[in-house]
Amino acid sequence: MLFKQQALLKQKLFVVGSLAIGSVLYLMARVGTLDKLQPIYPMETRYPSSEPVEIPLRTLQFKRGLLHELRNGNATKEQIHRHNLVQQLPRAIIIGVRKGGTRALLEMLNLHPAVVKASQEIHFFDNDKNFARGIEWYRGKMPFSFPHQITIEKSPAYFITEEVPERIFKMNSSIKLLIIVREPTTRAVSDYTQVLEGKERKNKTYHKFEKLAIDTNTCEVNTKYKAVRTSIYTKHLERWLKYFPVEQFHIVDGDRLITDPLPELQLVEHFLNLPSRISQYNLYFNATRGFYCLRFNIVFSKCLAGSKGRIHPEVDPFAVAKLQKFFHPFNQKFYQITGRTFNWP
Question: What is the pTM of this model?
Answer without folding.
Answer: 0.80
